[in-house]
């Protein structure tokens, strides 16, 4: 139970930074949708390029983040040697990547459809290389159980990125209209989307300054034999990561190639990308849980078999992701104002994307069985299967149904890999999950959601009150079944 309390504490810290950071980033969504109208396709460019950078980040870290946790926690390994070897390896490959992109920037930009703006690709190539390298000191902070500094750096990036976006997209246009001579030496009113990428580049570069202490105070050693063993362990995770990130981004990457009209593709992609942002509440919780759960699991493995702890963690993960799903869907009348009305046609994808995110989180929790027994190839098999499903469904249905097909393809892919991972995992590393309890929560959430869909009071206030009542039914069930208030010390004093 102490282990779960420690996990809950770290999840709260990581989660707070993640949730606040994502919430603050939400401020950029209405800004982008105001400054980049749906018809312009500008937000489609942002969605497309950021999807590619997410994929490249997985390639450039090639599973070494998880490999670092695994080998740093081994009793016969020197954690600092593991850390320094990982830094040198990932840093070296990131530098080579940047050099390659800059040398061949023109053909790369032309192939991706940005021949008019190759600097977009150049800026994001540098950003993704820096991000890849910074993943290792971030992992080191998690290994050293320093969630406060981890969260602080993440928050610094988010805040500075927001401020720079406001500067380039709001303040500069105002100054350009009222006092153009003040900014004419650096500001181009027609550059638009480019300033989004420039702000990211500046903030990512500044973030390096906060890792000074994590990059000094030890001897840099490249243990080739160690790296070879780490890469052997991590390579299947790279395949897993590639397939996993493709599951999340492949629709946004290939979308412009699936429609004949390039401008229409960017318009649709912008609507889909903006609407999907509302569903990212689920991703916030999943990411926060992942940051705390990965070092927790590998650390617990040192203490012996902790399968019951893993089973309990899975149950509570499902409970609170269902709570997040219901909260978002019940308050959609409010949350839709995160984006401007010309993007509202895309709101129909939100429940589908949130369901896919939930299955992705469950799959992540299930994935530890093959990491703990060093059979990571299974993760690669599952994710490749999911990726093939998603790609095929996108290729077949996007030209016919547009971006709604992207959402359903993602859900189908994650549902499939979750089921496969569960059944194979029960044979290889059996864990007694409380399927009956989890199933009961899923059933209740489904009933409440269906009730909110079919019972829709015309008055928005009554509608929100009704849905709030439904949400309290779910919360009351959680308290009654798994979180008795008497177990909370502060409340216990009043409930006796």
UniProtKB/TrEMBL annotation:
Residue spans crossing the bilayer: 12-34, 40-62, 82-105, 120-143, 155-177, 189-212, 233-250, 270-293, 313-332, 344-366, 378-396, 402-425, 437-455, 461-479
Membrane association type: Multi-pass membrane protein
UniProt xrefs under Pfam families: Polysacc_synt
Protein location: Cell membrane
Keyword terms of this UniProt record: Cell membrane, Membrane, Transmembrane, Transmembrane helix
GO-annotated cellular components: plasma membrane
Domain of life: Bacteria
Protein name listed in UniProt: Polysaccharide biosynthesis protein
Taxonomic source organism: Bacteroides graminisolvens DSM 19988 = JCM 15093
Lineage: Bacteria, Pseudomonadati, Bacteroidota, Bacteroidia, Bacteroidales
């Amino acid at each position: 139970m102490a282990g779960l309390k420690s996990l809950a504490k770290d999840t709260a810290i990581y989660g707070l930074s993640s949730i606040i950071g994502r919430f603050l980033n939400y401020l950029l969504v209405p800004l982008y949708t105001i400054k980049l109208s749906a018809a312009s396709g500008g937000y489609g460019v942002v969605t497309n390029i950021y999807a590619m950078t997410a994929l490249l980040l997985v390639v450039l870290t090639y599973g070494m983040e998880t490999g670092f946790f695994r080998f740093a926690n081994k009793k016969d390994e020197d954690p600092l040697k593991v850390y320094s070897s990982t830094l040198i390896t990932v840093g070296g490959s990131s530098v080579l990547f940047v050099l390659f992109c800059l040398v061949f920037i023109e053909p790369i930009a032309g192939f991706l459809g940005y021949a008019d703006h190759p600097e977009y690709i150049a800026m994001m190539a540098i950003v993704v290389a820096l991000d890849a390298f910074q993943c290792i000191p971030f992992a080191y902070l998690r290994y050293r159980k320093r969630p406060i500094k981890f969260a602080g750096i993440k928050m610094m990036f988010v805040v500075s990125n927001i401020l720079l976006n406001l500067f380039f997209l709001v303040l500069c246009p105002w100054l350009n209209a009222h006092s153009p001579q003040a900014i004419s030496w650096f500001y181009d009113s027609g550059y638009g989307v480019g300033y989004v990428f420039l702000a990211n580049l500046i903030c990512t570069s500044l973030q390096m300054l906060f890792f000074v202490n994590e990059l000094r105070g030890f001897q840099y050693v490249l243990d080739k034999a160690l790296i070879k063993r780490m890469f052997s362990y991590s390579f299947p995770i790279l395949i897993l990561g590639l397939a996993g990130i493709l599951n999340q981004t492949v629709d946004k990457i290939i979308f412009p190639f699936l429609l004949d009209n390039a401008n229409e593709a960017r318009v649709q992609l912008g609507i889909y990308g903006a609407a999907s942002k509302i569903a990212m509440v689920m991703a916030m919780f999943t990411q926060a849980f992942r940051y705390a759960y990965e070092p927790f699991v590998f650390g617990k493995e040192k203490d012996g078999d902790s399968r019951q702890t893993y089973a309990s963690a899975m149950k509570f993960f499902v409970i609170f992701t269902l709570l997040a799903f219901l909260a978002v869907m019940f308050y959609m009348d409010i949350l839709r104002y995160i984006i401007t009305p010309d993007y509202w046609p895309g709101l129909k994808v939100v429940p589908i994307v949130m369901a896919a995110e939930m299955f992705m989180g469950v799959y992540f929790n299930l994935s530890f069985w093959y990491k703990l027994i060093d059979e990571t190839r299974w993760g690669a098999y599952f994710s490749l299967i999911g990726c093939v499903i998603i790609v095929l469904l996108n290729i077949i249905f996007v030209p016919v149904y547009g971006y709604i097909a992207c959402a359903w393809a993602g859900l189908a892919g994650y549902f499939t890999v979750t089921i496969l991972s569960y059944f194979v995992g029960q044979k290889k590393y059996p864990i007694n999950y409380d399927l009956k309890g989890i199933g009961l929560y899923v059933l209740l959430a489904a009933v409440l959601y269906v009730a909110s869909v079919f019972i829709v009071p015309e008055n928005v206030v009554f509608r929100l009150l009704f849905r709030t009542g439904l949400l309290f039914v779910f919360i009351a069930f959680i308290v009654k079944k798994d979180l008795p208030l008497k177990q909370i010390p502060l409340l216990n004093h009043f409930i006796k």
